[in-house]
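Supplementary Methods. Inverse-folding protocol.

Structures were first reduced to a discrete structure-token string of length 325. This string, shown here, constituted the complete conditioning input.
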């Protein structure tokens, strides 16, 4: 006669399986996170090398042009659409070639659009003020992934604008040259952000924010990035849709693509330690910059430019932002 398992024995086996599962599931989750982190580092390294190759082919200068080229969308579904005015003012976002679609500058060297998408982000088609139907689906823009540091490259805002218009030429304080960087192995040309609505590290204006040609600086204020990358304690402005409780620093840190073509993961605390405080930088953390430290009216980046309220101290030794000597 066959002997069957008793109820006690079955319960013991189930309990052992449950204990093993409880132990192994976090290990599997950590392995998955580590794989995504490694992918992010690899992607930023390849993109950073693409930026360097662009500069090598363009007299040592970082990309910053502003143009509109029909059927040039990164999202192929937006090309060759009958009835679409590819470079019209209202329909040309997908076909613009500027800092909001900076990936087009490096695409001839990277040759893979998927590398520009951060696999640790859950939404690559966020609604933005310019693209309410979705940054990727409507405008062919990659947001909330890897951000080009346009304070190092500079920006142009010249396409379809009258000569002499304000801020057409936004010149990096370093001149936009790769060799002008004092420390290429430390300077971040690419960075992550948890803000799903932006695709670049914004430029920051000092006291001059209205001339035809202006000098721009990095938005390197520790208090702001602590808010931008940490767990949110207040809702963003009405223009933004990201939940208040979302942790924006993937895996508790930031992957940085350096100007020498390397890439590295930084714990959030270390990234913040490599960023000057508002006092050190000599600027005010006001609503014009994007946050208010005194009344709790906090909000994040809503576009590609912010105001510092003052000309910053460029001699503070924070090479991650290209500052110092």
């Amino acid at each position: 006669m066959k002997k069957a398992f008793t109820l006690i024995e079955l319960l013991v086996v189930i309990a052992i399986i449950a204990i093993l599962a409880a132990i192994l599931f976090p290990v599997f989750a950590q392995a998955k996170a580590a794989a995504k982190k490694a992918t992010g580092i690899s992607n930023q390294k390849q993109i950073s090398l693409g930026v360097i190759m662009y500069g090598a082919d363009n007299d040592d200068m970082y990309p910053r042009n502003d143009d509109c080229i029909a059927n040039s969308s990164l999202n192929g579904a937006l090309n060759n659409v009958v009835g679409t005015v590819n470079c019209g003012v209202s329909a040309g976002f997908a076909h613009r070639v500027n800092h909001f679609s900076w990936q087009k500058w490096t695409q001839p060297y990277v040759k893979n659009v998927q590398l520009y998408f951060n696999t640790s982000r859950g939404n690559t088609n966020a609604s933005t003020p310019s693209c309410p139907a979705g940054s990727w689906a409507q405008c062919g823009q990659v947001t909330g992934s890897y951000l080009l540091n346009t304070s190092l490259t500079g920006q142009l805002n010249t396409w379809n604008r009258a000569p002499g218009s304000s801020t057409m030429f936004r010149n990096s304080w370093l001149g936009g040259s790769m060799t002008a960087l004092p420390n290429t192995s430390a300077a971040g040309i690419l960075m992550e952000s948890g803000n799903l609505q932006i695709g670049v590290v914004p430029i920051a204006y000092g006291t001059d924010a209205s001339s035809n040609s202006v000098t721009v600086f990095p938005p390197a204020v520790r208090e702001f990035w602590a808010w931008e990358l940490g767990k949110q304690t207040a809702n963003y402005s009405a223009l933004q849709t990201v939940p208040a409780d979302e942790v924006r620093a993937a895996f508790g840190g930031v992957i940085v693509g350096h100007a020498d073509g390397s890439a590295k993961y930084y714990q959030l605390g270390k990234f913040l330690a490599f960023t000057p405080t508002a006092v050190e930088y000599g600027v005010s953390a006001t609503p014009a910059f994007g946050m208010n430290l005194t009344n709790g009216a906090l909000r994040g980046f809503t576009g590609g430019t912010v105001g510092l309220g003052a000309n910053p101290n460029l001699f503070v030794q924070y090479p991650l932002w290209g500052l110092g000597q």
